[in-house]
Amino acid sequence: MRQGGKKAVGLASTQQRIFAAVPSRPLCKESRRCHRHEPPYDRKRSEPAGMGAFEVHPEVCFWALAQNRPMVHRKKIKDGVNERLDLLRPVFSGIDRHLQNRPSGVGRDDLLDSAVAVWSALRVSNGEARRVCEPEHDGKGLETTIWY
Question: What is the pTM of this model?
Fold first, then answer.
């Protein structure tokens, strides 16, 4: 992609909106940090047939699912759970049942984060996903970026 091109400017603008919406460390740095994985993960990422594995950040995914609006409530409180459930119900009709029947030791927020990661996986599969930043490359030459 050309520097200063229309697509690059659009990506930078999107990245700024995401960074403003998700109060955490810069996501490209988080992407690099997350790429310290076991070899099977690296093998999946390097499959020639496409993306065997990819990274998501749940709050970025919720931001995208909410039409580019940040979540108002923290994910571990009741209002935050309800806010996220309201976004997931149209996508996963059985989400309430799954939340009620989740395995012991699995937090409500963990299940909701997993569900929104599945939503992003579907977007990747359908060619609808976007990324937070231009991919960088790790020590093995594999792309690192966060998708939503």
Answer: 0.68
